[in-house]
What does this fold into?
Amino acid sequence: MEKVVLKNIFKKYEGDVTAVKDFNLAIQDQEFIVLVGPSGCGKSTTLRMIAGLEEISSGDFLIDGKRMNDVPPKDRDIAMVFQNYALYPHMTVFDNMAFGLKLRKFSKQEIKERVHNAAAILDLEKYLDRKPKALSGGQRQRVALGRAIVRDAHIFLMDEPLSNLDAKLRVQMRAEITKLHQRLKTTTIYVTHDQTEAMTMASRLVVMKDGIVQQIGTPEEVYGTPENKFVGGFIGSPSMNFFKGVLQEGGIKIGDTVLTVPAEQHQLLKEQGYIQKELFLGIRPEHIYEGSSVNLESFFTEVTANVEVSELTGAELMLHTQLHGQPYIARVNSDTKIAQGQLAKLFFDMSRAHFFDLDTEVRIR
Amino acid sequence: MTIQLQELFSTYQRYKVKPVSLQDDSYCFYSPQAEEWFSVAKREVSTRDYEWLSTLYIEIMATVSTPREEWHAFLYTQGDIPVKQAAKQMRVIQLVFSNDSPSFEDLSEALLNFFHSNSIILQASSKHFIVIEYKAQSINGKEDFIALIRTLEVDFFARIHLYQGEFYVVDENFPLKFQREVQWFEECIHYKNTGQVYSFEMILPILLMKQMPSSILQFIEQQIVIPLQSDEELLNTVKVFYECGLNSSITSKKLHIHRNTLNYRLQKFQDITNISTKSMDGAIVVYFASFLQTFSKNAQK
It folds into this structure.
């Protein structure tokens, strides 16, 4: 049975503001679901409705098959972790972790056992007598996780828990949370605006925009076959390149350059009436290769590019350039020595290209 | 009579208003004829003196009250100024729990582990709590209050609204200022329900809107709100543009639209309303128009 089900969920505020529109999702037990999208897309609101901190305007929310809309938050068997650490500054780490249990009238012995168990999992045992001020950002966030773990809840809700940490620590904590999930196997719903975090942690992603679910799928599915232009552009860094062009026999014309469209894909577009029509071509930066590093395939199209910016990120080189006024980035091997202002011979792997309708921006398939 | 008492007791002290607190080592009496209060040190008052003093005057009994009781009386029942905090700069933080009422003892423990231990916690009603905080021991700002709300949400499982009061000197006007903030808080929750941390800056536009002459409201409605009705995202786009400090890149990123789309919308807004999107004056008008748009929608409901 599904652990959590959200059916036709809407959240409307006064003044006709609809924060979440017709949200549907079924979450399996032990899944790690990530809600991702830009700020204001409704992901935190959805999480807060699950927690019971926001009322559900309409729709059904079920846990283990039981309708939870009207169940008080404290009886939903949910534990939460937030971005702002959510710690009491004047309590020790032990007391911070114990406080929720104390409110629920657990015995002292039970509290002690649970706190020590959680502290062991999170490697916090030696800090139990310290106050939050004496801890690093990462340690504080581990205490916040500890406050959730001690509850032994069936569902964890995490709202941007790593956003307060610096980049290096965020990468480290990301791995720690993943390990923690593998160990505890608690169904987790995690909210982030960071697509890298979403891609690396999720069993499945829910991409949201303007309160509407854009796509639900595994990271591979969402990255490899985005449902629409928004998802293609939002997931992936650098984001997918988009070009506006006109479909012709054999290829898509951008300015006076024609990029070859593989036969099967071309046939599909043709059948749907896109010949001589404008559409968007989307191609990821890693699917544009530099001339010296590729074995040419028939669907590769060569383009000569004037490199405006050449960014070395370590293992890779980001070449910023334009195709008839439409900017794009090619992500090439750092062995490629192309500097700013030089001409590069780039090859578009058109078998990896996506096509989106100009008006609806939905992927054509 | 006054002169005689002064001669009889060297520690005699006279008060035109009721003393805010009574010392344990003194007697305090009220003189109905003189309509004033006086106190004398107990060490100077013999048993016989006490008998005639309490026959002629009304003794004001010293009652031991906790700071919480003192503040409750001060804020809600015209009680005396709490002596320990008199003339100090303090503020009131209000908390409203919207879907559950926590136990006062549990919440007090939580709050006193967040605020300085000298802060005073009161329960105004089953879901309304207040924290009275010394300026010198205050927590910093909005980020801290959001952290507080999140911490309480984790433990108490309730949606919480918070009003960050201003610092005022604790004097006889303090309760009035507090009551004004209570009212503002209610209005904030009513008009800006999506927020959780409120303060004067947030209520000011609402207050101005409510007191604005109808002719001006009509003008804004007719010149801006109604012409933009068919294209509602324009007003919001311009509002976000101002909120982002007129920065096109940040605005288009926030709205998740292309820069060209943003420029198109800004131009269209300017064409329809004749309001410059590059000036502070324009920002004020847009802000009020945006509020009015929300108000109109609420009224239609």
